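Hi R.,

Here's the chain you asked about this morning:
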Amino acid sequence: MTRRAVLSGTGSALPRTRVSNAELAKRVDTSDEWIVERTGIRFRHIAEPDETTGTLGAAAAKEALKAAGLEPSDIGLIIVATATPDNTFPATATKVQALIGAPDCIAFDVAAVCSGFLYAVSVADSMLRTGAAKHALVIGSETFSRILDWEDRTTCVLFGDGAGAIILSAEEVADEAGAKGRGILATRLHAEGQYCDMLYVDGGPSTTGTVGHVRMQGREVFRHAVTNLASVLGEVLADTGLSAEDVDWVVPHQANRRIIDATAKKLGLPAERVVLTVDQHANTSAASVPLALDLAVRDGRIKRGDLVVLEAMGGGFTWGAAVLRV
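And here is the predicted structure, written out as tokens:
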């Protein structure tokens, strides 16, 4: 028998306020046509003052707990992936812990921007396999609107706020089940810090003492994203002995429709096997993959036994992928 981290529940939460491209065009020099043509984005949700990364993460966590049939007291590990924490410290994971009423457990944040959820999944997978906990709550939660420069139309139109959560549970799987058995089959993570100035926030406690705003070299990010995501998807599938033909669903980071389409084409994956939410949510950074995953699970597209691949790339550059049998 082999211990694996098995998906036992998903959840998500979006801010109350939904903003269309037309509404955004009243504030920024842009248009619905310009945004849709270049990104595929039509709407995004923007957090109100009383909505934070912590409160959104907690709301998504409660939905995941309900789906898994678990109580907060069952959770032994909470990891929040975010680039927009409620505070410099303590970790937003501890705030989520308090908000959902979970007792003493392991709780910490992971900062890898848009790849953060994949990094958090990989960490949780390792910790569950080694017996650190029985059930892990893994959350991607962001209030990216707080760090946008609303005068910069090249970035402010791209992002939105939201949270997605999953529960991974340690279960024993028969060795002979192999890739047909449930659970996370493989993860791959990468980082190339030499490109950090292509997508970054121009502030921080140790440098400017301010929060700062998102800055991006769009063309370079696009080029690296397509190459890196196609490469890491090939790597993680090779680790499992599987191929693109075996994949039932790809749940990609929802940054840009053109990046998603180009990556799928490079791997020979049909568009109908790719989960898309970028048109409704925009880029929610670390929240985008779990948000899309929850949507596809709840609407019945992703079913028990399906082979699902998750992937993302973000500032750093960081990127990663995971293969799991639902």
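One quick note: The mean pLDDT is 97.

Cheers,
M.
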